[in-house]
């Protein structure tokens, strides 16, 4: 068994786990469950992109997931702030 076979199997398992997490995004009982499931999917996509970058021997596929991880983190914080306060920003008067 070659190392590329292992990474291919890992990529397939990550894809399956992303699809399983999509159930929580669609059927989540609360909004917070859906937000957390979306964040988990974003994290798994980052790992999947790194695995794909290794399989295709493209180092650029490591830079893209780092940027995507930062955007995922900031997006989760913005949604959490909106859920907590009911608004994203308050204008000064």
Q: Would you kindly provide a brief summary of this structure?
A:
With 93 residues, the protein is an all-alpha fold.
Spatial extent as radius of gyration: 17 Å
**Major β-sheet profile:** none
Total strands: the figure is: 0
Low-confidence stretches: none
- SSE arrangement, N to C: HHH
Number of helices: 3
| Total of domains | 1
Helical proportion, percent range = over 70%
Tell me, what's the shape? elongated
- Class from secondary-structure proportions: mainly alpha
Averaged pLDDT: 88
Distance between the termini: 66 Å
Strand content is under 5%
Tell me what the structure shows.
The protein has 93 residues and is an all-alpha fold. It has one domain (3-85). It has three helices and no strands. It starts with a helix and ends in an 8-residue tail after the last helix. The relative contact order is 0.11. It is a multi-pass membrane protein. Keywords: Cell membrane, Membrane, Transmembrane, Transmembrane helix, Transport. This is Multiple resistance and pH regulation protein F. GO terms for molecular function: sodium:proton antiporter activity.
